[in-house]
Design a protein that fits this description.
Layout (H helix, E strand, L loop, with lengths): L9 E7 L6 H17 L8 E6 L6 H11 L3 E6 L5 H14 L4 E4 L11 H9 L4 E6 L7 H16 L8 E8 H8 L8 H8 L3 E6 L13 H15 L2 H29 L7 H33 L7 E4 L4
Parallel strand pairs: 1-2, 1-4, 2-3, 5-7
Antiparallel strand pairs: 3-8, 4-6, 5-6
Helix pairs in contact: 3-6, 9-10
């Protein structure tokens, strides 16, 4: 690391899902950067642009194959089915490490994240960083709802003890050592943003801007973002279960107060008057119980799925590297 800049073998991992509308545009930008990195001696000519097809249903894989035929530096792997953004990123990183990459950089295939920041990532890598986080300068391109919920989520996760880098994205660099360490984590419900800080290696930060998408629509729906958020919460903390325990204790104390109030009303001959209070108590207790069962059930379900120890993904096809 750092002794010979041009000898650095870099794999840029671009996860794709139904991205036929944007792939050619993204590939053109990525190729221009690749040529510049080679010309400036920052990476070796064995470096690659790795597109990971996450089980797309459109022409994404055909376009990747065509790009590979036209450009030696572009290669691709196709997962056997859609496994989700985090698995696609992980598959690309581990594949790159297996191909002998010194470091890998992950970035979304639509290249809304500024790909021209990659030389800064490599500079941090040459300084000895095994992990380099990409952090957004601002969230001006996001809606008010997404901006607000993202900020609150980062604060909530930090309150649970997860060392998330605020405003960081899945735009990051990992050395091969860091990728191999990450691969030792065997859970199938991956939350890479939370796992990477757990590795403990030397880190750096690169700030970047986000642009508007040039073609197609984002495949990262609200449902997928909510699933990712839930994975993060249940993967890194048992505090929600402790909150349930605290809620149960509070409800127990309230129940004692209500019981005393009921006895007093009965003695005073005003039992009927407490009917609204009784109904409110029933609804409140029922809601707390259902919420508690749901939270505990989420943990039990994830423990059950992890206990199966199933493979995270299968690679169906790969372009090869002639």
């Amino acid at each position: 690391m750092g002794e010979n800049e041009g000898s650095t073998k870099l794999y840029v991992v671009l996860p794709c899902y139904n991205e036929e509308a944007i792939l050619e545009i993204s590939a053109k930008k990525a190729l221009a950067l690749y040529d510049r990195l080679i010309k400036d001696g920052l990476v070796s000519d064995e470096s690659r642009l790795l597109f990971v097809d996450d089980g797309s249903k459109d022409r994404t894989w055909e376009i990747i194959e065509d790009l590979h035929k036209r450009h030696k530096c572009i290669c691709g792997i196709k997962l056997s089915r859609n496994r989700g953004h985090q698995i696609a990123i992980f598959a690309g990183m581990t594949y790159g490490a297996e191909q002998g990459a010194d470091c890998v950089i992950t970035i979304d295939a639509d290249l809304q994240q500024d790909i021209n920041a990659i030389p800064k990532f490599l500079e941090k890598y040459r300084e000895g960083c095994d992990i380099v986080y990409g952090v957004r300068n601002s969230r001006d391109t996001d809606s008010f709802f997404k901006k607000t919920t993202a900020t609150l989520y980062y604060k909530f996760m930090r309150s649970l003890g997860c060392e998330l880098i605020e405003q960081s994205a899945d735009y990051r660099l990992l050395s091969r050592k860091a990728v191999e360490a990450l691969d030792s984590y065997k859970e199938s419900n991956l939350f890479i943003r939370g796992l990477v800080p757990e590795l403990g290696f030397k880190t750096g930060i690169v700030y970047f801007d986000v642009s508007n998408r040039e073609a197609g629509e984002s495949k990262y729906t609200l449902k997928k973002m909510a699933t990712l958020a839930l994975n993060g919460i249940t993967s890194f903390s048992i505090r929600p279960i402790r909150i349930v325990t605290l809620m149960g204790f509070v409800v127990f104390l309230i129940s004692l107060v209500m019981m005393i109030q009921t006895v007093i009303d009965h003695i005073n001959g005003a039992a009927v008057r407490g009917y609204p209070t009784l109904m409110i108590s029933i609804w409140f207790l029922g809601g707390v119980q259902l919420l508690s069962l749901g939270i505990i059930g989420e943990y039990v379900g994830r423990t059950y799925m992890e206990s199966k120890n199933r493979p995270r993904y299968f690679i169906d096809k790969e372009t090869g590297d002639e």
